[in-house]
Amino acid sequence: MKGVLYYFSGTGNTKWAADIFKKYFNNNKVDLHLLNIEKIEEVKIKEFDFLIIGSSVYADIEPKIVDDFLKKFPKSTKKLKTIVYVTQGGKSSSAASIIAEKLKVKGYNVLIEESIKMPNNYYFLLNKEPNVNEYEKILTDAEDRVKKTVQNFIENNKLKRQNSFIRIKLGKLCGNSFRRVIPRISKNITVTSECTKCGLCLTNCPKSNITFEDGKPVFHSKCMLCLRCIYICPVNVVRYKGKKIEQIQKERVKGVIKCQ
Ligand SMILES: Cc1cc2nc3c(=O)[nH]c(=O)nc-3n(C[C@H](O)[C@H](O)[C@H](O)COP(=O)(O)O)c2cc1C
Fold this sequence. Notes:
Distance between the termini: 34 Å
Domain 4Fe-4S ferredoxin-type: 187-215, 218-243
Pfam family, one: Fer4_7
Protein name: (Fe-S)-binding protein
Largest sheet: 6 strands, parallel
Keywords: Iron, Iron-sulfur, Metal-binding
Helix content: 25-40%
Bound molecules: flavin mononucleotide
Strand order of the largest sheet: 2-1-3-4-5-6
Low-confidence stretches: none
GO molecular function: iron-sulfur cluster binding; metal ion binding
Strand content: 15-25%
Radius of gyration: 18 Å
Oligomer: single chain
């Protein structure tokens, strides 16, 4: 058996979970290919026996980059078995159900919808301090959740954490309204004069939204607020509302960095 996992991960949490999926499938002698949707030109599903879609959560729904990717996703004629998982800072979200809806319309047999709690990379949205003491437990629980998901899938158990119709409706309302204000919110991201011009933010921005002008990174209007630039900066000089952010994703973001 051979599966494919397509993921989007702004700051490494969803990729971290993808690696754990791979580990547990491999432990069960099942091959799993991990593919970053930012780098995909052509989606290939024919050669695979099952599909996994992994995404982060922005305001209760999937980021638009995932939405756009799913729109181009081919139909499944053989009702390909599918797992949808999302990672978010809270306990639950509508995103897995919303992604599953989109895949079911295309003929996929979504057996599992999973919402995995991970460290909240946007902890500073409400001026909150990150609770780093919690992280070890969050990661252990997340790994356990992935392990159980793999087991359930292999045993052919249908496991859905169904969100109610109302929850999904509200999620879409909240997520779509949030998408409209992202260009405004993203103006909160700036860089200080201590920037070393290493270019990591520029080469790793999923929207190619950063350029160097007069020797300084300039953030344009296509930002999707994934926050990767904040967490990959080696000298931590990318600011949000002028504030220094504790780089809680520093280790995990390495999983999605092109060059270091
Ligand atoms: C713009 C934005 C919006 C977010 N909205 C939510 C949310 O509505 N609910 C939640 O639980 N977490 C939310 N988060 C936290 C992320 O979903 C979470 O940290 C996720 O694991 C990040 O995955 P990644 O590192 O793969 O990008 C948000 C993060 C960002 C950047």
